[in-house]
Write a structure and sequence with these properties.
The protein folds into two domains: 93 residues; 132 residues, OB fold (Dihydrolipoamide Acetyltransferase, E2P) (Beta Barrel). 34% of the residues lie in helices and 23% in strands. A hairpin with an 8-residue loop joins strand 4 and strand 5. Helix 1 packs antiparallel against helix 2 and helix 1 runs parallel beside helix 3.
Amino acid sequence: MKSPRVKAVAERLCGLAEGLCLAGLAGSVFSLYTGNTLWYFVNPKYQTLVLATAAGMATLGFFAALSPPRPARFSRPLIFAMLLGLRQFGGAEAFLSPKPGGGVLSEPKTAVEQAAPSRTTWDGREFVRINVGELYDICSAKGADKRTDKLSLNYLVQGFIQRGKQNAVIYRTALYCCFADATAVSFRIRADKTALPETGIWVQAYGHLEKTKPGKLPKLDLDAGFFTVNPDYIFVAEHFEETSAPKPPFMFEWHTDEPYAF
């Protein structure tokens, strides 16, 4: 049977261990806030919530370490220690490493990239820089057919190419909150005057929209995962530029007017 002194020391050590583990987890969460890896896990717009979470965990750790001794239960600090170990030694790269033909992990956009002009020029014509999700919203909005001011413009989009025997799409993943609600948004793509890139290539495509005719398009035969394809418009590409994935490769925001979140 444990002596009262040994029991008291065990209770105190249990509280200290729990407090230190919580403080370590708080520091780990805070490192996500201050570093360049937050977007691996969650939409950067939630960074304030991440900071509040780190502060809350640190506060709980402080009170756990200084609270009066209580019956020693090492299961709680053990669980916290395991979580901390997974964060420190697992790393985001363990499950987000690039795949053949896929994008690469990269840091968020620099100030120069964010300040890029809303339009660019190719072949003597202006093209509006826009992400696939924003273009999808323009085509899907109520009364979209009457928005000739937007539907008639030339656009520059970027994304992955996915090809089938009779079809091809250009798509990009939209991240609303985290990977659990990610959606790949896409357009059928056609290239009349240039060669269509191979599957898995990240490209910037210059082109325009063309209204599709119901029942005239072949059924999608793409060997890919789940994604949403715009049913009313096809993107007719005039020129492709193969490039690396943006930083980061996902769509985090959508604008209704220029400048768009290219």
